[in-house]
Design brief:
Elements (H helix, E strand, L loop, with lengths): L1 E8 L2 E6 L3 E6 L10 E5 L2 E7 H4 L9 E5 L8 E5 L1 E8 L12 H4 L2 E6 L6 E5 L14 H5 L1
Parallel strand pairs: 2-10, 5-7
Antiparallel strand pairs: 1-2, 1-8, 3-6, 4-5, 6-7, 9-10
Length: 145
């Protein structure tokens, strides 16, 4: 069994490995620069990723920040999301087969599971994952092709 933090950015729901989460906080308490921006956290400057924009979704509320390391030992980054849904304990048998994804996005996800409160699918963010992948924005055309 593994523990994941489920977050929502507009219609997109993600699971991030709880082992990579350093802190969850309100973005109201921080000066956030938006996609491609930076934020100060504990006297460190972190890259800040607006999850909506990065994955080609309409801009959302971005109320919460998840300080996350995509690979153990890497510098963390800030994932800006609308909501932190909560922690989930997931067994290997609960994962569903992955659908076919566009090349631009399939490098980010490796499994999915159903949401507990809706019909939505929740995608697991790969870990380890090269945090440099979060630097360039994915074009909306790549997402819809």
């Amino acid at each position: 069994m593994a523990i994941y933090l489920q977050v929502r950015a507009g219609p997109l729901q993600l699971l991030v490995d709880a082992l990579g989460v350093h802190e969850v906080l309100s973005l109201d308490d921080l000066a956030v620069g938006g996609q491609g921006g930076h934020v100060e956290w504990r006297k460190q400057v972190l890259n800040s990723v607006a999850v909506h924009t990065f994955f080609g979704q309409a801009q959302g509320e971005r109320l919460m920040g998840v300080v996350y390391s995509a690979t153990e030992g890497d510098e963390p980054l800030m994932l800006e999301v609308d909501e932190v849904v909560g922690l989930r304990n997931i067994t290997a048998a609960q994962w569903l087969p992955m659908p076919r994804l566009p090349d631009a996005t399939k490098v980010f996800f490796d499994a999915l599971i159903g949401d507990l409160n809706s019909d939505a699918q929740v995608y697991r963010l790969r870990r380890p994952l090269d945090s440099a992948l979060f630097q360039p924005a994915i074009a909306a055309d790549d997402i819809t092709s």
